[in-house]
Amino acid sequence: MNPVLQRIQGFSAAEEFLDFFAIDYLPSVVHVNRLHILKRFNQYLGRTPIPDDMDETTAWDTCKTLLKQAHDDFVGSSAAEEKVFKVFQEQEGKSISLDSIKVSLSTRTQRT
Q1: What is the DSSP string of 5-31?
Q2: d(CA 67, CA 85)
Q3: Where are the domains of the chain?
Q4: Fewest CB within 10 angstroms: 7, 40, 94, 101, which?
Q5: In whole angstroms, what is the distance from residue 109 CA to residue 29 CA?
Q6: In the chain, what are the helix, strand and coil shares in percent, each to the nearest 5?
Q7: pLDDT tens-digit profile of 21-63?
């Protein structure tokens, strides 16, 4: 694993990633979308792999660019619009009523 990826592997908060890569960010965006930003960053890393033998400067720059892009995706958009997580992908064009949630919950309770 590339040394840059090894260093960030132990991070848990979105702010840790953003601070490590010296990215200016909007706390209000991160507060609401932290998991979405990290998931999107991971998706971008999947499309732009960081090889083990990539030099650390290039790896750091690449990660910084991808993380900044992930953050910026949510500056003018929302989690529902970006559809990072499966729940948002499946609900496109659908609305969920409170009654359907109650039925779903009561069905689950009866099964357990």
Answers
A1: HHHHTT--SHHHHHHHTT----HHHHH
A2: 17
A3: 3-111
A4: 94
A5: 35
A6: 65, 0, 35
A7: 999 999 999 998 898 899 899 999 999 999 999 999 999 999 9
